[in-house]
């Protein structure tokens, strides 16, 4: 298996690499190719929804959209994901190959320079990857980095990673902002990366200012002259700032604000379909939620189109009680869609002998939309003989005091870059966040088999079966996948949705340009 | 020669009072720090857990806790912090990995500028509104000012701020909707970006100060000495400014000190709406990230400001009213 090769332009490297890859089933033409010609110049201000004194220049510690966006402007990773296909492309690594998906070899681009002028070598990559294993660093990826059995340099421009077990998703994992490459020896990275922008000013909790890196190693990028990144936590203020021209791009727009933005011809919204979901958890180790008929009845009682329309103004994708969204790799379209069917639900409730039972549901604004979802469920519950009580609890402390601790609570799950991550974090019997506490040996075995499977078709089959099992048996109901909404000035061009997150998967700065 | 000697003696009489007040302020600060330390210790989770987030393993949390020194007993941490603050070093922020003094020195000037501009504008406005409505008691001007100030008191600041943004930023495009305080910005740009925050805060504090001024002045105007002065033929403006005001100044200055101390720590809603990088939002940040040294330092600043303003208010009241000096 090989991604990349030798060629003159980077773009053709990617294209050629993909053609010969085989690994990347969805691979097509080169990403990042835009129809219009980008213009150079322009200074924009971007606002995210959260910033604090915990803001960091250390990719390993990135925790929020603001951090991810900042890190992607300053640093590069070995790989990157740059379009809606979610296929990892080579970045600092110009070729990636592995025979057994345990030992991986990365060949680095030559002549790439850090902002301080020093050249990128294998030492920097080894340092950047190994620091995640050091508890003192406090990396967000420490558990994932635990699978790096060994990372060493192989000559000046070669890096070899040996994993503890086969994992075909390594290129995708390395495309996350946490694994961006910093200069060797920097225990507290200060923004000196190989990225498209140089750091001009950084004040945690206030602002980050970056200016174009004139010597960026990818020719013709970036287009913007200067980007100022701030945070406006209040949604109404964020939209107002956009409409008054104080900022040119922002994320986390409420669906209700889209009309205000679209009403003005100078501004637009960009909806990014994402695998973010809020799920209703039915604990399998408690009663009556552990009763399969109860779980089935609740799944049949969810009015998905209503939730999509009323709660999210259609900025959502109908889900099917399993975590892989239709636009993601390995989605299984053959799992029958569960629809609202009160007669069937009533039948299940009667069979389980639970008619008339009073059940509290715990909801909080911490899990987006959960309070309204619970109210809708309460309404339908009364029609089939279930008496749901909606317990609305405070958002602060919800995750530590309520989540997964009552028979019925709501969870909220951010998009993860691979199917493997989402299944291993939330649906493995032994996972810390096995929300419903279900146990399914078959699913656990498929998970491990799929992780090391080289054949893409076979892999899709394995993930397909897991989706079916979760849909049929797991005590988790996933009504919809929630789209992410960005608002932007129409003069900011080149933005396309990348389903990993807001702002083109937090990497807009590398592609966007300004047109007066 | 008599006048200076008299001032000197009155100042000399004030000195023990000031010393006593400063000492009791220090005691108050100490108690406040103790209360904040205890109460924030009751919050679920600590800085190590907050930094590492949901995905943290027990070992990671333990390692970070050790680095931060959170594994020491609470009283040891408190004494260490107290020792630092006495020496003038508020310590290192757990979360930002920067000295607390540096974080605060970035934010404090912003808060002070906002508070100072608002204070000047609102004090002048409040005095004008208060005095003119007191001398026109029962008149049309009085009723109009009464209705205005009472509606301002009743209106929450987020409403005023949001309406201000909708009208002046979104519709008219006159003023920026967020306060962008940059060190390199010119004075005019800074004033422009502060216009809406100052406007909202002024609406909040001016009403109360004006009401207090009106009440105090009106109360004095009913006194026999005012009637006496009128009968003597003293011009009315002179009566108000030189006879009534010195007597009314005590409660007025007190109300002002209360309102102004609010500007330092209580501006959180305005700071949120305008994204103003001030101290109040820094403190809220410190609470959510359980950053104890930062939280303690912010609390100390707010408390000290409040105590200092109260002290100044009392001194002004005493200096203005000889009867209080007895």
Topology:
The complex is a heterodimer of chains A (516) and B (326).
Chain A lengths: L1 E2 L6 H10 L23 E6 L16 H10 L4 E3 L6 E3 L2 E5 L5 E6 L13 H9 L11 H4 L2 E6 L4 E6 L6 H4 L23 E7 L3 E6 L13 E6 L3 H9 L5 E2 L7 H5 L4 E16 L9 H9 L3 H9 L3 E3 L23 H11 L5 E6 L6 H15 L2 E6 L5 H4 L6 E6 L5 H8 L14 H12 L3 H18 L2 E2 L2 E10 L2 E2 L8 H5 L6 E2 L2
Parallel strand pairs in A: 2-11, 2-12, 15-16
Antiparallel strand pairs in A: 1-5, 3-4, 5-6, 6-8, 7-8, 9-10, 10-11, 12-19, 13-17, 13-18, 13-19, 14-19, 20-21
Helix pairs in contact in A: 8-10, 14-15
Chain B lengths: L1 H41 L4 H6 L5 H11 L5 H13 L13 H36 L4 H15 L2 H15 L15 H35 L2 H9 L3 H30 L2 H6 L5 H10 L3 H29 L1 H4 L1
Helix pairs in contact in B: 1-13, 5-6, 5-8, 5-10, 6-8, 7-8, 8-10, 10-13, 12-13
Question: Would you mind describing this structure in some detail?
Answer:
- The complex is a heterodimer of chains A (516) and B (326).
- With 516 residues, chain A is of the alpha+beta class.
- Chain A contains 16 helices and 21 strands.
- In chain A, a hairpin with a 5-residue loop joins strand 5 (93-97) and strand 6 (103-108).
- Chain B is mostly helical and 326 residues long.
- Chain B is 80% helix and 0% strand.
- Chain B has helices at residues 2-42, 47-52, 58-68, 74-86, 100-135, 140-154, 157-171, 187-221, 224-232, 236-265, 268-273, 279-288, 292-320, 322-325.
- Chains A and B meet through helix 6 and helix 12 of A and helix 3, helix 7 and helix 12 of B.
Sheet having the most strands of chain B:
none
The SS-based structural class of chain B is mainly alpha
Q: Summarize model confidence as the mean pLDDT of chain B.
A: 82
Count of DSSP E strands of chain A?
Answer: 21
Taken in chain order, the helices and strands of chain B follow as HHHHHHHHHHHHHH
Quickly give the structural class of chain A.
alpha+beta
| Count of alpha/pi helices of chain A | 16
The percentage of residues in β strands of chain A lies in: 15-25%
Helix content of chain A: 25-40%
Task: Report how far the terminal alpha carbons of chain A are from each other.
Answer: 45 Å
Mean pLDDT of chain A: 87
Helix content of chain B: over 70%
Biggest chain pair contact, residues each?
Answer: A-B, 36 and 43 residues
SS elements, strand count of chain B = 0
